[in-house]
């Protein structure tokens, strides 16, 4: 008689949860689009006419009206464009090819090994998909592959796979704005903190553990990817070198810096590495 172990039960629950998350992605996207569309419709039919009133007798009211209209349309275009790009842009797998072959004679896999060997003597290998694991990559249990810089990967944008007013309305629009503001405001603040400190969500928890371990040993841990607040922002938005800073305000696609597999380290990191090497040679 077969008796399931605790580990097999947990593994089964994880597989079931991953299957649900994988399948529910399109529903989340439709829900997000529905909320955005509802908020947009309510804004232009209720909120906008309330704050921007047309008056044929005064030219300045017309100018104010058109400025508000153009700015409102600009914001709506930016919101839908950036959400569309977030959904359509793949987060980036370890292999550039569409399939994840693991044969040793695969030229794509060999190229990846050679690329990573330029930066590390022994490239890391993922224990789950058994492919080379670039720095800052993390294995996704839903789509069963490693994803480069894991944070651009969640059910709300579902990119594990390929895919193709009266007063009540006024009250509803503000309630909806407050609800969305509370839900997304905290998430936005959290992720801006991660951007400013150059961490992904997974790295944040790993760094917390590394800091506690270092403190117990009387040492100080420094995030090797933290280049300072300003440089972290420039690197994340890729402005200042390839793109001008004003591109942040435009609804245009901006390519990320580098290849996603190797990342610039801080000067403190190199100093620490050099000190460790010199200590070993003494």
UniProtKB/TrEMBL annotation:
Principal location class? membrane
Give the subcellular location: Membrane
| InterPro entries for this protein | Palmitoyltrfase_DHHC (IPR001594), PFA4/ZDH16/20/ERF2-like (IPR039859)
EC code(s) of this entry? 2.3.1.225
Acyltransferase among keywords = yes
* Topology with respect to the bilayer: Multi-pass membrane protein
Keyword flag Lipoprotein:
yes
What is any Pfam family matched here?
Answer: DHHC
GO (cellular component) term, any one? membrane
The record's catalysed reaction(s) read: L-cysteinyl-[protein] + hexadecanoyl-CoA = S-hexadecanoyl-L-cysteinyl-[protein] + CoA
Could you tell me which residue ranges the Palmitoyltransferase DHHC domain spans?
A: 123-160
| Annotated TM spans | 20-51, 63-84, 171-193
According to the UniProt entry, the note on domains is: The DHHC domain is required for palmitoyltransferase activity.
UniProt lists the family membership as follows: Belongs to the DHHC palmitoyltransferase family.
Please identify the protein, giving its name as recorded. Palmitoyltransferase
């Amino acid at each position: 008689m077969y008796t399931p172990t605790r580990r097999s039960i947990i593994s089964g629950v994880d597989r079931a949860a991953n299957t649900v998350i994988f399948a529910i992605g399109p529903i989340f996207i439709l829900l997000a689009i529905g909320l955005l569309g509802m908020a947009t419709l309510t804004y232009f039919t209720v909120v906008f006419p309330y704050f921007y009133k047309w008056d044929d007798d005064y030219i300045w009211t017309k100018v104010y009206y058109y400025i508000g209209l153009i700015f409102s349309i600009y914001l709506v275009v930016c919101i839908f464009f950036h959400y569309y790009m977030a959904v359509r842009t793949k987060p980036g797998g370890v292999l550039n090819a569409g399939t994840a072959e693991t044969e040793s004679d695969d030229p794509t896999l060999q190229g990846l090994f050679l690329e990573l060997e330029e930066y590390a003597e022994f490239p890391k290998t993922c224990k789950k998909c058994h492919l080379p694991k670039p720095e800052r990559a993390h294995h996704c249990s839903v789509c069963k592959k490693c994803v480069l810089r894991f944070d651009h990967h969640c059910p709300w944008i579902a990119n594990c796979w390929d895919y193709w007013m009266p007063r009540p309305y006024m009250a509803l629009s503000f309630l909806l704005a407050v609800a969305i503001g509370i839900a997304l405001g905290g998430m936005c603040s959290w992720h801006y903190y991660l951007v400013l400190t150059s961490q992904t969500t997974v790295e944040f928890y790993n760094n917390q553990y590394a800091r506690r371990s270092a403190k117990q040993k009387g040492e100080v841990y420094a995030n090797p990817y933290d280049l300072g607040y300003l440089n972290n922002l420039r690197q994340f938005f890729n402005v200042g070198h390839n793109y001008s800073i004003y591109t942040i305000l435009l609804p245009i696609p901006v390519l990320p810096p580098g290849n996603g597999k190797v990342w610039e380290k801080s000067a403190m990191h190199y100093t620490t590495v050099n000190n460790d090497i010199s200590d070993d040679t003494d």
